[in-house]
């Protein structure tokens, strides 16, 4: 039997050592990449308390509870407007988060986009507009005035909730809960601030183009890209404790000026609040952090403007929603001008279509 020469054996040993080192390096790199993903996973899920024993956020008929892992609050529906039976064409329940004393602004909104004569989508029943107002317990004079207004117009949901920024997360969850439990046949639940000028008829085109789809788990509105700063100062209005969300930046989310979530997404958000501690930055919490937890897709809608300076009023700009600081009369006049321009454009397109068909 022939034995390999010493030189050949030496070469084989060197080759074996080389291959062993390459394999070890690959395993080391693989382990590094795997371990580098762990902080990201821990970051996004560190505030999710899967063993939480808190009750679910739930509606009990005349009362409801909004529940987080660290705090639960009970509320009462003080006034519930009548909701007509919804058909398949009832697309959007749009609820305004209104301040208790905003009587004049509510009347302006009733004269503009909430008015059937100015909004076809409201007139044909595809959108139902309402207000949600919180009443501070013990303020009997304010309660009397708001309850009279609610009964007169039949468009206000009244709850015994403090009207403060700190309660905004609770207020927005009350809006979603109302839509899920009191008006379950609406495909989409919307929340809008009272300082947003809104042209809801323009949403119809977004439905027709497939930009808005009511079937999946989605949140729609003015999308803020991932990476927004997190405020850790306890004295800051937008304070978020690291124990609740340990990432250095926020995930993508939808601005609280106006957002719409599918019924299924709203239901999932409501069920999931018990697994996280309370966070008072409402839009980030509901449409960002919880949406990320639940796999809810965040989608941007065109023609949404978040800041007052985004619009030059001297120019013609196509607007669906504009978050602004207009006074009541300015709000009314801007809406009327914008509506007239939209209706003229729509009439012109219809005339051109008719002419083309005849030719």
UniProtKB/TrEMBL annotation:
GO terms for molecular function: glycosyltransferase activity; hexosyltransferase activity. GO terms for cellular component: Golgi membrane. InterPro entries: Glyco_trans_31. Keywords: Glycoprotein, Glycosyltransferase, Golgi apparatus, Insecticide resistance, Membrane, Signal, Signal-anchor, Transferase, Transmembrane, Transmembrane helix. Transfers N-acetylgalactosamine onto carbohydrate substrates. Involved in susceptibility to pore-forming crystal toxins in conjunction with bre-1, bre-3, bre-4, and bre-5. Involved in resistance to the nematotoxic C.cinerea galectin Cgl2. Belongs to the glycosyltransferase 31 family. This is Hexosyltransferase. It comes from Caenorhabditis elegans.
